Amino acid sequence: MSRQPDVTVVVAVYNTMPYLTTCLESLVGQTIGLDRLEVVAVDDGSTDGSGAELDRYAARYPDTVRVLHQANSGGPAAPSNLALDHARGRYVFFIGSDDHLGPEALERLVAAADRWESDVVLGRMVGTNKRYVHQAAYASTEERLDLFDSPLPWSLSNTKLFRRDLVERHGLRFRTDMPMGSDQPFTLEACFRAKKISVLADYEFYYAVKRENAQNITYASRFEERLRCAEELVGFVAGLIEPGPRRDAVLVRHFSWEVAKLLRAEFLELSPDVQQHVHDRIRKLAGAYLTEGVLARMARDVRVRVAVARDGDLAQLCELIRQQSDRGLPEVTVEDGRWYAHHVGFRDPAFGYPDDWYDITDQAAKALAKLTATGLDWGRDATGARALVVTAHSRWAELSELSAEAIQVSVGELAGVTSVAPDGTGTVVRTDFAMDRLLGVVAANGERRVVRAKVTALGGTASAPLRTDRRVAAPRMLARHGVRFHLVTPTTNHKGQVIVAITPVTPGRFLARLRRIWPSGGK
């Protein structure tokens, strides 16, 4: 290659076949053209044929693809650094060897960087195979993105376009002492030093792949490595950015993500001595850097979790994790139309946390919509017509205080006539479904409909299927609608959901049933 390429793509490779082939094909097929592109790939001691695949592409594209081989280093940092040492492009772009690019990605990114004189350009990333990618930073195309006043701290992977002069001028390299997360300090410092950061949101530039065997380093990392990664990241931010709102704007990501994710249900599976060790380290980290400014920016549940990790003992922390891991709501206090969860620290003077940290009013409708079915029966509705009667129970007495319009129980799309009444342990909900109405909207070949409750309360609306802890059912009923007969079967399915199965009775089905009862040649 005689002229300087516009962009060098750095690929650190370790055992990523067959995804590597897709990655490389997406690079050599870029619309920017092979003459403006350089690919520097480093095989980090692969054992699955990845090294040979790289060599095959280098042979096919000798003026574009360069391959370096080294013994396994244990992570992507060392091969990425080696590739940077050999990069010649005006810009560098990093790609995971199991990911791939949209065809126009590099052409669009380089054009934007040249047009806006940007040092860093983000192109919209999307996840594939259920890979999670935080999307807030890609909400819209922006010529200038502020590190401290945008969602950028939530998108600190190195999968961006960087001006190589910026990288070399500040000696930016990847942390080889971090088995995971080594790209975040690199990206953060590049963004911190950049004169201008831009984002392009009008194209799918980067496809982040979650492998079928879930062996991406992000997913395969061990607990101790994740803990050390959190400590290193928080310490790096503290060393790079002065105390105050700007540091807080970055640290809120690390405490909300890397730290708080260590304090989930899996924490309870650790042995008590390991739990104490982890808690001691997180408490030390939070004591040093978890400021009021960081706490103010956090989601409520995460805020309480990291605050209790800082201020409480191990037993209190474990209890809170259990409470937050429970799919149901804990005991609540309802005051002035607001709901407050009785999680650890609520109105405990030893913690002194404000009530709004425990405000779960926005979850009230979801909680009220979860009903437990207690009975399915045939009866009569208020007009005397035959009806399916569905009874259910809610632990919440507050449900009985809502208006009739706020509570709806439906079989499929058909809403029944619902009434509620307190019973001392919560609320009893009764819903009548007139048989004529049930059969009036059934499909010609029958159907199975789930019974659902929908509640509108305190500014929110939520729905949920009726469930039961035990099997409930009503006798199968033969009913006529017009000239047609149907079998109506109210019961529960394998998920514990209440359903109503409606099956038309045709001559063929009638004869088949007779044959089952009186088989040919039987007596």
Describe the structure.
The chain is built from 16 helices and 23 strands. It folds into three domains: 212 residues, Spore Coat Polysaccharide Biosynthesis Protein SpsA, Chain A, CATH 3.90.550; 138 residues, no CATH class; 146 residues, no CATH class. The protein starts with 6 loop residues before the first strand and ends in a 6-residue tail after the last helix. It is an alpha+beta fold and 523 residues long. About 1% of the residues have low confidence. It has a seven-stranded mixed sheet, sandwiched between helices. Strands 15, 16, 19, 20, 21, 22 and 23 form a seven-stranded antiparallel sheet that branches. A four-stranded antiparallel sheet has the order 13-14-18-17. InterPro entries: Glyco_trans_2-like, Nucleotide-diphossugar_trans, TarS/TarP_linker. It holds the Pfam family Glycos_transf_2. This is Glycosyl transferase family 2.
